[in-house]
Amino acid sequence: MRLIVHNMLTCNIKGVINKFPLRIEAEKVIKKEVDFNPDFLRHMLAKIEWKALVDGARSMGYTELPDHAPALESDEPFLRKFHHALLELNLEEGSLVCQESGRKFPVEKRVPNMLLHEDEV
Amino acid sequence: MWFLCVFYHRLLDFRKPEVEALAELFGEDESIQWRLPEHHHNDTPFHFVHLSSEEIAQNIAKRSILVKGMYELWGEGTCYEELKDSIQSFPDSRKLPFLTSDSTFRISVETFGKALTFDEQKERIHSLTYIPFEGKVNLKNPDHNFFLMEMDESEESNGLPPIVQRRIFFGREVGFADRKLLPTFQLKSRTYLGPTAMDAEMAFLMANQAKASSGKLVYDPFVGTGSILVSAARFGAMTMGADIDIRVVRDGRGPDCNVWSNFKQYGLPAPVALLRMDNNVPPWRSGLKEIFDAIICDPPYGVRAGGRKSGGRKILRGTVDPYTVPEDKRTGHIPSTGAYSLVECVHDLLHLAARMLVMKGRLVFFFPVLRDESGSEVKFPEHPCFKLVAVSEQILSSRYSRVLLTMVKVEPYSEEIEEAARLMHLEFRENHLKWLEEGNIHSSVFKPSTDSSQIQTESKTFKDPKPKYRGKYV
Asked: With an 8 Å Cβ cutoff, are A118 and B315 in contact?
C-alpha cells in the first residue's frame, strides 16, 4: 500500500465519526523506485490531505517532508520528496488503524483489506 | 483536411468512437466529420474523416486498434481511367513534395474481396506512370508509402446489400497501426488469468475510449486480474484497482502469478494501489473528489461471474440480524457477501464516477443487453452528471450482447445532483425488466430456446435492427 491510497481511505464502520486518517502500523516497509512524472504529481498535490501524508510518511520511516506544502509547487527538490513519499514507500505488511474505534484493517502483500464485518455495516 | 480512414473489418460499432476519442486526446478541437465513399454502406471499412492536421491523423492511426491506416487521398474512381483523371486533377502542390528525387517510395497494391496475382499487381503499379515519381524505390523502409486499393462489389452470402461497390483509391499513407501490440499482449501468454479477464484487443479499445495517457490516474473498481488496467498502463497512465474478492486481488495464484506479475510481465509500472473493498460500502474519505481521470471497468453481469456486496444472503433479506463474529475468530474472518444485482451495481458505479471523476473525465464500462428483434429502444443507465458519447455493441451470442458505454462527466457533483440521480435510478430500476433487475440475466441467457411468442413484448432492442454482417460477430 502506498501513501497515495492511504490518503484516500477511511474507516467506514457505521457510527464512526473520526474516520480519517487511519493510523499506520508498519510491520514491513519496502522502497520501490517509480518513474518521476511531474504532471501526475502536480494533479495529486491538489487533492492530497497534507498532514495525513506527512504523518503517514513518518510511520513508514520517512521524515523529510515539510510540514506544509510550499506555495511554489514547481520546486523540483520538493516534488522529488513528494514523489518519494507518495509513490515509493510501500507498506507490504501492517495495519491501518481507525483512531476512533480501534478497528484494524490489515494490509497483507501490499493489499489493504477494507471489507467490513457483518455487524459493522 | 479529409483523410481516407481504412478500418480492420471487425467490431464495427467500435470503430468511429475510437477515432473520435483519440482525436480528442490528440488535440482535435473541431468536431469530427465523417463521409462515406460513393455507394458504400456504413459497414464498409472505408470512411473519409475530416481532421485538422496530418499529425493528428498519424497519431490516431498509430495508437488505434481498429484503424488499419490513414491516407491522404490522391484520387479515386470506378475504373483506372477515372482514377487517372482524379489523380491528375489533385493539385501538384500537394503531390510534388512527396515525389522528390532525394526521397524513397514504395507502391503497395491492396485488394478487398479478391486476390490479384503478382503480375496483375505489377501491371496496376505500372499503369501509374503518369504520376511523376522522381525518387528511388525502397521496398523495406521507404520515406513515403503509397497505396493502390482496389475492391469489387462484395458479395454477401446472407443476401444483404453489398457494403462496398467497385472502387479504386490511390493515396499516400499518413499513419498506420502498431501491429505488434495485440500479439504482445494477447491473453494466452498472460501470466495470471481469470475467467472474465478482458481480451487484449477490447482492453485497448476501452483504454482508448477513456483517453488513457501519461500523467493520468485510471481506476477500475472491478479489477479482477487487472486485464483492463494493463492496457491503460501500456498507454502511459497510472492505474489503481479494487475488487471484493480477496483471493484475486491479494493472493492470485502465488507470489509470481498475481495481478502485480501481469504488469511485470510487460515491463509496465505496477498499479499505485490494489484494494480489497466493497463498492457498495466504499471507504473513501468524504472530502475526496475529482481524483480519477478515467474509470474503466467491466462490471459483473451475473452471467459468468456474479457481483457481490457486503452482507450474507440471510442478512440482506432480513432473515437474520447482522451477527457479531467472536473476538478470537475475527482475524482472518472472511465477511459473507450477498448477491449484488446488476442495476444496483451500475448505480453505485455511476455514483462513484460522478463524485470521483475529474470534470470531462470519462467513464467507460460494459453493460449487457438481451438481443431481441422486437424494435423497442434499449434504455441505458443514466446520471445527471454524465453525457453519453458512445454506444458500441459487441455481439456475444444469439441471445445477448454487451454494449460499451462511454460517458463524459459534464456536471460537477453536488447534493442536489445526487438526489436527482437517485430518482433516475429508481425509475430505471422500475422500467428495467423484472428478471434483469433480479440479476437474472444469467437464466435468460442459459434457458433453453422458447418460441418468440413467449418473449415479453416490452423487451428492448435497438431502434433499427441493423443487418448483422459476419464482421459484427467477432
From this structure: yes
